[in-house]
Amino acid sequence: MTLAFGAFVVQLDGYRLLRDGKDIALEPKAFDLLRYLLLHRGRVVSKQELLEAVWGAKVLSEGVLSNAVAKLRRALGQAPDAKEPIETAHGRGYCFRAEVRELDSRDVRVPHAPLLPRSTDPFVGRDAILDLLMARLGRAHGGSENLVVLLGEAGAGKTRLARELSGVARSHGVKAWLGSAYEHGGAPAYWPWIQLLRACHEELSDPVWRRHLGPGAWAIAQLMPELELTLPAVDLDTQLARFQLFQEVTRFFKSAALDHSVLLILDDLQWADPGTIELCGFVARALQEAPILLLATQRTGELPADVDTPGPLDQLGRLITPIGLPGLTEGEVSELARLVTGQDAIESKLVRALH
Question: Which of 157, 279, 319, 352 has its CA 20 to 30 A from that of 236?
Fold first, then answer.
């Protein structure tokens, strides 16, 4: 069944939410919530009914529901004081109020986004690699293919491609989080992993986050003092503490992947501290049978600051699947120039010069 309201099209069986023909990233529970409200539109659905129907739980914090409603409203562009499409019946539940029409499956044509005279953020020439990475993500739970390193020169578009992959993965119900190494030094050890854990904490409700964390996670607590966990401070430089940290991080993401497939992105691996790289290898080995893909990006074409210190690729060895990101072809440069300038065609001489 395909339903439409305003500029949105919802393919209930295909689990797709589109606006003007473009996929809107929506996590699975938020989509399930939208689906249920649409199927029961026009009436107030109680909070208890939603918790049982969508989460399958009779006893669950209402904060989980309100958090999902907030995410759904943001995806639909609903203003804070607006009553459509989702109205809050205070103390009772929620009601889908917008006018909904059912599209005939024989005549459904997902509308394409209107052509813009100027694209401010074009993305070209990477469809094949994006498809390859999505295929890797689909096979990540099969073992030995869960650590991919995207290699390319500075400015080749590694970070942009990783972020595009994150968006596409999320539209398929995958949890995707990103952490980046810091170029200029001064960042604490494990900085990319700290960013990944913080991104998880910001997105997930606190009860869910702590459930994934598990009891007695004192090592992760050293990385994230803002959690204010009443646990003893421990020096992570000791061998025992480092191993405990690695186990806790592995357990956390393994638990998170029980609900959804997970994409972890570690950007600019060439600047990562040794602990970050070692933890990357540990997680890759420990989670080969989990639906988790680790995607790292690394710059090529530069000499290391310390030629006597092995680089990340040398340290991770056979664990990685390297994928090179080449420059754009002349045809892709032409397409990029047309999108940036809004012109129908670019002179071939200029295209060659740009290329």
Answer: 319
Q: What is the DSSP letter of 320?
A: -
State the pLDDT at residue 300: 87
Among residues 107, 78, 106, 83, which one has the least CA distance to residue 96? 83
Q: From the CB of residue 185, how many other CB atoms can be counted at a distance below 10 Å?
A: 7
Q: With residue 203 as reference, give the H or E element that holds it.
A: helix 191-203
Region of residue 13 (left: phi > 0; alpha: psi -120 to 50; beta: else): alpha
Which residue shows structure tokens 């530069």? Answer: 302
- Gap between the Cα atoms of 89 and 45, Å rounded: 9
- Residues 6 or more apart whose CB falls under 8 angstroms from that of 19 comprise 7, 8, 9
Q: What is the pLDDT of residues 183-242, one digit of tens each?
A: 877 788 899 999 999 888 888 887 888 889 888 788 888 887 766 665 555 555 678 888
* Cα gap 129→152, rounded to integer Å: 13
DSSP letter for each residue of 209-277: HHHHH-TT-HHHHHH-GGG--------TTSHHHHHHHHHHHHHHHHHHTTTS-EEEEEE-GGG--HHHH
Residue of 347, 158, 161, 170 whose CA lies nearest to 270:
158
Q: Residue 55 class from Cβ within 10 Å (0-12 exposed, 13-18 middle, 19+ buried)?
A: middle
